[in-house]
Prior knowledge:
The chain has about 160 residues and is mainly beta. It has strands at about 1-5, 10-15, 20-25, 30-35, 40-45, 50-55, 60-65, 70-75, 95, 100-105, 115, 120-125, 130-135, 140-145, 150, 160.
Amino acid sequence: MIHEFIYNGDTKTVELKDNRTATFPESSSKIEIDYNPDGRMFLRQGNNRLEIHAAVNGDKTFVDIGGRLYEFSQPSQDANGGSGGGGIVTDPSKVFAPMPGKIVKLSVAVGDKVEPKQHLVIVEAMKMENVIVAKAKGTVKAINFAEGDQVDTDNPIVELELDEK
C-alpha cells in the first residue's frame, strides 16, 4: 500500500508491504517494522533497532524515534490530486486503519450522511487512540467490522457511497 506524507514541507512517498516493510521509492532505504506483543513498536534497519511512539492529532502525526520527535502531516486534497486529504493514496470511498489495532468506537451507522473530516471510527493501536475521519462527502454504505474487532490496514473498516461533485 502506498502512503504519502509531508515532512519539512516536502511530500514523500513510502510503500508499506505486509505492514512490516517500508521502502522509499526515491531511495534504496528499507526499514523493517517490528511489533511486540506488549504493544511496543520498533523500526529496524540492518542491526539498528529503535523503539518508536506515535500519536495522531487531526491531520498531523507525531512520531518519537529514539527520543527525537518528528512531525508529519497528510497532503491536502489539492496536493495529492483529490485523494481526500488522507495519507493513503486510494479510493476515498474506502476507509482504512492507519495501523493494525482494535476498534474501540464506531461513530457512524449504515445510511448516515458524512462530511469530510467527520469522525467515523476510533482504532486503538500501540496504546493510543487514532481517530479516523472521512476523506469525502457521502453516505455510509457498509461497516465491515464491529467495536472490539481487530483490524489491519488491508481491509476497509467503512465504505462510503460518495456524493457527486
